[in-house]
């Protein structure tokens, strides 16, 4: 049995709407305040004869209206049925089954059982964000029965592109100190905790994803695995794969690669049927190129000298502000940021400032071997990887050119940006 059509007139934010529903799966999506929950509540009301977000029927009426109705067409008890709920500001709700007014709600209550959510679940709109989050996390593990069937059918039709589905998990442990980059921070929207998983995983789920590293060491991975096995160990032996995500900076000079190998071998010995996946994206892009800037001016305010550059931290190096860390500058010494406030002029300590309109577009400080002047080159080491993909054009700031400097001194440009790149983004 299923709802075939649902018609709403003057119900909450619906003036006059009719929905034709698929017998299998229906996806309701839209911005906040568009009526998704109202539609679900109307469907639930056809089963329970109640509105769950209010004790007063009149509050189900569209603003300024005196009457409303919810009408559904559905198949139940071997026949086609219609059910109409009439709401009024002045009298009790009236119920019509197949055009005949019903004397008692109990005569039709439960006749329609194909409601997407249990009525109790609709009470979540009154609950806080934490309660709704717990419900949604649980709902993800209570996939509809059709899910497994559709997945199986897809894999049968596309054997060369077989889909292996997994759940993202949250081990509740990460050594990332900056919350902006920490997917395991309290309240994170990423990953399911062990307490939110049923003992039996939904049909079709074959693996776990775990992403909780950022330029991390092999020791951090070892510590993370202890928490993964402690919390999720009872499922690992049933899975086909475990994806340990990215952030494994195995190309960094001080990275203990041998330890990494030993950790992965040990994991494979404990779970021999488990395929282990890593995504070391940043490791491949590590130390691939610098960002070359030029000094356009030097300003001083209360003894703090700032070298204004033709690049922007906000627009071209946001990763430095988000982490935050000071990038290495060629032929300059990185010093404590407060040093720029105490340094004597002859020490040549400068804060570096960007060319955007944001007053906070700066970092510092660095000590140079000579006073900086307009035209001097400032080379930020290892700024091509995240810098290139995280740039923005706020306030019309132009992106740096992408070029290759060959060993013979020739400069080959791969991409040059101009005002038209900024303009065309707005069109």
Structure description:
A hairpin with a 2-residue loop joins strand 11 and strand 12 (304-309). The relative contact order is 0.07. This protein is elongated. The protein has a 6-stranded antiparallel sheet with strand order 2-1-3-4-5-6, covered by helices on one side. The chain has helices at 36-48, 129-139, 145-157, 218-236, 257-270, 281-285, 313-316, 318-322, 339-342, 385-390, 419-425; strands spanning 3-11, 14-20, 67-76, 79-88, 94-97, 100-101, 165-168, 205-209, 241-243, 275-277, 291-301, 304-309, 332-334, 349-353, 362-368, 377-380, 402-405, 411-415. It has 3 domains: 3-126, P-loop containing nucleotide triphosphate hydrolases (Rossmann fold); 139-284, Alanine racemase (TIM Barrel), CATH 3.20.20; 291-398, Lyase, Ornithine Decarboxylase, Chain A, domain 1 (Beta Barrel). The longest helix has 19 residues, at 218-236. Mean pLDDT is 85; it is low at 114-126 and 139-144. It has 11 helices and 18 strands.
What's the gist of this structure?
By secondary structure, the protein is an alpha+beta fold.
- Biggest sheet: strand arrangement: 2-1-3-4-5-6
Largest sheet: 6 strands, antiparallel
Structural class: alpha+beta
Give the number of DSSP strands: 18
């Amino acid at each position: 049995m299923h709802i075939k059509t649902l018609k709403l007139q003057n119900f909450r934010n619906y003036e006059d709407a009719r929905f034709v529903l698929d017998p299998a799966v229906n996806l309701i999506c839209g911005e906040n305040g568009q009526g998704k929950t109202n539609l679900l509540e109307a469907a639930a009301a056809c089963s329970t004869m109640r509105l769950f977000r209010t004790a007063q029927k009149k509050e189900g009426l569209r603003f300024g209206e005196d009457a409303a109705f919810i009408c559904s067409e559905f198949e139940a008890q071997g026949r086609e049925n219609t059910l109409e709920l009439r709401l009024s500001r002045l009298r009790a709700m009236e119920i019509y089954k197949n055009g005949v007014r019903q004397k008692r709600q109990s005569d039709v209550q439960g006749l329609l059982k194909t409601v997407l959510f249990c009525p109790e679940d609709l009470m979540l709109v009154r609950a806080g964000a934490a309660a709704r989050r717990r419900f949604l996390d649980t709902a993800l593990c209570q996939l509809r029965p059709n899910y497994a069937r559709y997945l199986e059918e897809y894999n049968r039709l596309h054997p060369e592109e077989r889909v292996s589905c997994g759940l993202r998990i949250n081990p509740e442990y990460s050594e990332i100190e900056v919350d902006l980059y920490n997917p395991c921070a309290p309240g994170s929207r990423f990953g399911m905790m062990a307490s939110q998983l049923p003992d039996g995983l939904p049909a079709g789920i074959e693996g776990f994803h775990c992403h909780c590293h950022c330029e991390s060491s092999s020791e951090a991975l070892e510590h993370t695995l202890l928490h993964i096995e402690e919390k999720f160990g009872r499922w690992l032996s049933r899975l086909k794969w475990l994806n340990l995500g990215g952030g494994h900076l195995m190309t960094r000079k001080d990275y203990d690669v041998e330890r990494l190998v030993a950790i992965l071998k040990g994991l494979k010995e404990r779970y021999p049927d488990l395929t282990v996946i890593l995504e070391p994206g940043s490791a491949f892009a590590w130390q691939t190129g610098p960002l070359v800037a030029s000094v356009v001016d030097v300003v001083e305010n209360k003894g703090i000298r700032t070298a204004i550059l033709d690049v922007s931290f906000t627009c071209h190096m946001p990763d430095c502000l988000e982490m935050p860390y000071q990038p290495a500058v060629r032929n300059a010494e990185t010093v404590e940021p407060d040093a720029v406030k105490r340094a004597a002029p002859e020490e040549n300590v400068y804060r570096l400032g960007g060319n955007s309109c944001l007053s906070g577009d700066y970092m510092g400080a660095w000590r140079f071997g000579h006073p900086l002047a307009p035209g001097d080159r400032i080379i930020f080491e290892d700024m091509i990887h995240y810098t290139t993909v995280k740039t923005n054009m706020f306030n019309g700031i132009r992106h740096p050119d992408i070029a290759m400097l060959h060993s013979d001194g020739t400069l080959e440009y791969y991409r040059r940006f101009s005002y038209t790149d900024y303009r065309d983004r707005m069109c």
